[in-house]
Amino acid sequence: MADFLNNQGQEKKKEIKLEIQLDDQIAQGVYCNLAMINHNEGEFCMDFIFVQPQQPKARVRARVLTSPAHAKRIATALNENIAKYEKKYGTIRISTIQPIAHGQIH
Question: Where do the domains of the chain lie?
Fold first, then answer.
């Protein structure tokens, strides 16, 4: 929503409609089972990777670059959705075993 001031100086909200388009290739999605996240002062780089069992190589399926503020909003939204998921389906168990790679692995 956009914020505007009315003639009395009070904040007034104006709803903006956003049409999001999704082409057929992106709509298919990609399966990833590893993420590597790096950052510098101005941006976050998130690589989403598919690792096949018993294979020495893995392929980056998607790379997302975003601002630090938006990365934090993504993390907040993901945490909220994980909490909702666990409330409905139970605790998500994660393995402590991770493949060996360079960079920040998640």
Answer: 30-89
